[in-house]
Amino acid sequence: MTYLPQPETEQIAFANVLTALGDETRLAIIGLLARNEENPMSCGQFSGVGSKTGLSYHLSKLREAGVVHVRPEGTKRYVSIRRADLDQRFPGFLDSIIATAQHLPMPREEAQSTAD
Amino acid sequence: MTYLPQPETEQIAFANVLTALGDETRLAIIGLLARNEENPMSCGQFSGVGSKTGLSYHLSKLREAGVVHVRPEGTKRYVSIRRADLDQRFPGFLDSIIATAQHLPMPREEAQSTAD
């Protein structure tokens, strides 16, 4: 099984979380994940957030910072927000992010967004 | 008078705010500013957050993103959080940042932090 490194709850660093979220495409991903938090999303469900390569890049940034959990299952990967971990470490923060992220327009310049 | 550019309320971009806050030193600055929000702080009051050059760099990042207001007055500069603007644009967000920022340890590696 593919090993996808992600920090333990206590290792999640607030500055890293903020940096990972500081991107329009990644905020759009969080907005999509938040609409149906109970059900992890497969990568194919993230329509409108750019190319497969771009999505993979952005998901790795979110995963490495501890914002999302990515579970490989066969050839698919299922993504979910690490709600319990983030709420434990940074009370109120995730909800404030989601509240804004769900109202942001979808980013249009995916090429620009992945180049940073 | 020195012109210090900063975005209008409606121009503040959430991704830029998150990126500006994604740094331990800048989170420490927000934690200090939040302890006495009514009174803008002069640069000399930010003891413990590194060199004068580093502080100037970090304050410019926060100002350009729209997180803080910097008011020149003679040879001094007074810094305050843009509470009204941030609360209007991103409800609940600033308070969640402050709640965590005030409990973070002071960053020790200022040289490393300014190099990013």
Automatic annotation (TrEMBL), chains A, B:
<dbReference type="GO" id="GO:0003700">
    <property type="term" value="F:DNA-binding transcription factor activity"/>
</dbReference>
<protein>
    <submittedName>
        <fullName>ArsR family transcriptional regulator</fullName>
    </submittedName>
</protein>
<dbReference type="Pfam" id="PF12840">
    <property type="entry name" value="HTH_20"/>
</dbReference>
<dbReference type="GO" id="GO:0003677">
    <property type="term" value="F:DNA binding"/>
</dbReference>
<keyword id="KW-0804">Transcription</keyword>
<dbReference type="InterPro" id="IPR011991">
    <property type="entry name" value="ArsR-like_HTH"/>
</dbReference>
<dbReference type="InterPro" id="IPR036388">
    <property type="entry name" value="WH-like_DNA-bd_sf"/>
</dbReference>
<feature type="domain" description="HTH arsR-type">
    <location>
        <begin position="6"/>
        <end position="101"/>
    </location>
</feature>
<keyword id="KW-0238">DNA-binding</keyword>
<dbReference type="InterPro" id="IPR036390">
    <property type="entry name" value="WH_DNA-bd_sf"/>
</dbReference>
<keyword id="KW-0805">Transcription regulation</keyword>
<dbReference type="InterPro" id="IPR001845">
    <property type="entry name" value="HTH_ArsR_DNA-bd_dom"/>
</dbReference>
<dbReference type="InterPro" id="IPR051081">
    <property type="entry name" value="HTH_MetalResp_TranReg"/>
</dbReference>
